[in-house]
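Re: folding output
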Amino acid sequence: MTAYTLRPVGHVESTLTDRATAPRQPDEGAPDAWLVFDDRYAPALEGLTPGTDVLLLTWLDRADRRTLTVRPRGDAGRPLTGVFATRAPDRPNPIGLHTVRLLAVVGTRVHVRNLEALAGTPILDVKPLLTPDR
């Protein structure tokens, strides 16, 4: 198989530091956070405006890439399920997918609502969330 190189464009600043106690989903108590981009990507932030919803792609750098099956939500009563059928962070390519609302854009820092990513999580990309009216 072909290998690909990903280059983080920034990192997450958050009050979340412990994976064991972090919310699993944004609607489970995820705090607001800051996306901090490397200065060289400042032009890429042009057009991001507060109130916009975006898809944030992160690299879940603390994930176990050998994991192929999990018990969803860590519930021992649930059957083993392949990670591709779950949102488990442990997976062969631990890419995080987050829908966040932009609260502010200040230079190369973007304030977002309800992000369940841990402090220091590398940012791979940001894309606008497409809606029916686009």
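--- second protein (sequence, then structure) ---
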Amino acid sequence: MYDAEGLTILTERECRELLASVPLGRIVYTDRALPAVQPVNFVMSDGEVMILTSADSKLATATQNTVVAFEIDHFNHEATAGWSVVIIGHAHLHPKEDHLAITPELISGRRLPTHPPKEPHNPLPAESPE
């Protein structure tokens, strides 16, 4: 299935598999009424995104019991191919209180089609034999 821009729509299962394949993502939240994006290391545990942080960190304070977005992606420049997965869900402190957990409520993803590398462009016309 494709979206209006021709990107492949990933299934929830594909999105979850990709979530388990990378260690770095971006959490998107509101900080003082403005959008904020922060890169974070994470792991998936029992279907939740787990981010190591202290309970009194700026990130934990700004996101606790709020709706956040979480995004991961990968891009191959040579093949001009890649993918992106976005989770929307509530953030809360995990019982250990040194992890911020995001419980996914909406999961979506898109994949760019794979294209072979382009041939180098030669701006000069080929010389004709005389």
